[in-house]
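Recall the central idea of this unit: under ordinary conditions, the amino acid sequence of a chain determines the structure it adopts. In this exercise we apply that idea directly, starting from the sequence alone.
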Amino acid sequence: MTVEMNRFVLSAAVVAVLGITAGQAGAGLLAYDGFESYTPSTTTTVAGGNGGTGWVGAWQGTNVTNPVVRDSAYDYSNGVVVIDGGDQSLRLSHAHDAYINRQFATQTGTVYFSLLLTVNTALANNHYVVFALSDSPSQAQSAASGLNNTSNTTLGVRLTSTDFNSASNVSSNTSVFQNQTYLLVGRVAKEAGLSPTAYDRLDLWVNPATLTEPAYNARVNRSIHPGSTLSWFTVRTVNLNGTQDYRLDEIRIGTTWESVVAIPEPATLALLAAGAVVMLSRRRENHA
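Accordingly, the structure predicted from this sequence is:
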């Protein structure tokens, strides 16, 4: 084989490796927002913002004067899972019962979501910050995870069928501490057998370290009625006093674990490319 042909084969292999890796991460991704396209501000609400990709419309808000996008970034690294938070994030600090939500393409199958959560100020037992998937902007029937039990500061999950406060919380036994960034991954499915058409299972992972789906940290089985579709992502905060600083970043909605977790970083892609070059070079030498 000629030198030119060897170079061509190596280049093609590198491109293939990078393409496969990026394709695995991108396949199944429905919507994403990393808040990089917003103008940083201490007063402007995110409601009305239309950044990110894949969403049906802009962010909406109820009783929202603040969250806002600020000049800060939060990254996550655990095992082989590395997520770059970029240069900006979303601040949650509104004092009253507040909602922000955004619509994505309607789904009838299993839906995953992931996000980065960081708390920069002292936590209190009654701080309430949850992230929910539902079939409408209302959170009455939803699959919710986060700090959704006002008696402690542990992450948990709940499925609501008629009213959000009617469901009990299932704890992940993972406490949230100040100045630490957490990767939350949720999975909503129709698998528990409680209803033939409704979503009846919610799983939560906290700080996963693998690119394949591991054992969950918390699970709840309960039918959502009506709950045969999912099309809205909602953030709800209660009992914050306006001075708290909860940060939200890197929101992903997808149909596979890989689409919301396996996000290849530039350094990872470079290592994969280098590995492909070394492997094929050795193979060529063995056949010389």
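The CA atoms of residues 93 and 124 lie 13 Å apart.
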